[in-house]
Amino acid sequence: MGAGGPRRGVGPPDGGWGWMVLAACFVITGFAYGFPKAVSVFFRSLMRDFGAGYSDTAWVSSIMLAMLYGTGPVSSVLVTRFGCRPVMLAGGLLAAAGMILASFARRLLELYLTAGVLTGLGLALNFQPSLIMLGLYFERRRPLANGLAAAGSPVFLSALSPLGQVLLERFGWRGGFLLFGGLLLHCCACGAPPRGRARRRLLDVAVCTDRAFVVYVVTKFLMALGLFVPAILLVNYAKDAGVPDTDAAFLLSIVGFVDIVARPACGALAGLPRLRPHVPYLFSLALLANGLTDLCSARARSYGALVAFCVAFGLSYGMVGALQFEVLMAAVGAPRFPSALGLVLLVEAVAVLIGPPSAGRLVDALKNYEIIFYLAGSEVALSGVFMAAATYCCLRKQPRSPGATAGAATEGAASDTEDTEAEGDSEPLPAGTEEPGGLQALEMRSPRAGSVGAEVEAEAVCVAHWARQAGG
């Protein structure tokens, strides 16, 4: 397997063994996003056995999601220190152990600590390294790879929920948790293909001074406040509108089916040479479309109108899921991506803990879903407008110097996908080189059409350099 990984000085293979890494990332993404939601099928049995209310039982999934997002910096430090493979293997064991121990729980507190904390931490230790390795194995085809990997979320959610229901009916919630724990051991197998570690600092907080990163963090915070709210409230909203229970539950399936198609399709679209330099604007468009969908559907009451909402929401939601990490990778570059991702997930955890719970409390207090859809749509639409405006006004004016271009080329060629100590054919990185971020980095990484395009670009850089010398 080591021979299949990219070598230092060669660059991402954009295929080959990278497809195995992509398959592993697909599975990990599916478990990370689908598993906390699939566990909810056991809630009624847990409420009955423990004599607890719905809100107390739902904390199992909430803690799991909080660990998935909130332990991002911890995962960044561990990946930088030990490498992706050991961290992913340990994460798979922790996730499985959490569900297996939860099957013996006698109190809700024990479920919080096992299924919530242990399994959530294990999923986090799998999710972040898989995204890091995906960025190191793909460059030209990275938007498509991100879209295909992101499709794991709706696919696994569509599969795990029915599977959980079958296990519950046949073995009870304890047997279901035990078998789910065995299923999570597949995360260990997914940790086998990638190797290598991400190098700089253990947690490069200096990335917070990058304007592109700051813009992205603010965008993600605003987005996370409202993005997940409509999907969470959709079924109950439809039932209150008089839709039968079966038809109301089918609305989420419509969102899932459209989402499955939208993610890889959007990834392929974003990889086109003409569009790839403008991926931040495409991401902004997806956010704006999602927000406007919420706003326009706030008064939808008929089943046909709700179906139309689900199709539009699934399409825009899939676009957001396919592009969100591609934009971050392009903004900060591969060397700083581990630290940037950890910090982004930490900020997103705060927003996730504020948005959906606040929406639920507003519904209980106001008995009105319309206001919630207006608030959620406004927050997501605002995030899209902010992303586009900040990219246009701030990031597009960053100077593009020949020195930065050379540094980026050197850094990109020396992808940190192998341990330096274990490889004899590697060259040390030049001191002081740093990969540029923001729209400048995205433009530099966009594929060029043949050698003629490369010559034109090189000539333009030289002319700009001479002009600066003459002006100086």
TrEMBL record:
Region Disordered: start-end pairs: 402-450
Biased composition range(s): Low complexity: 403-415
Molecular functions (GO terms): monocarboxylic acid transmembrane transporter activity; symporter activity
Keywords: Cell membrane, Membrane, Symport, Transmembrane, Transmembrane helix, Transport
Primary subcellular site in the record, as a coarse category: membrane
Cellular component per GO, a single term: basolateral plasma membrane
Name of the protein this chain belongs to: Solute carrier family 16 member 8
Organism listed in the record: Chinchilla lanigera
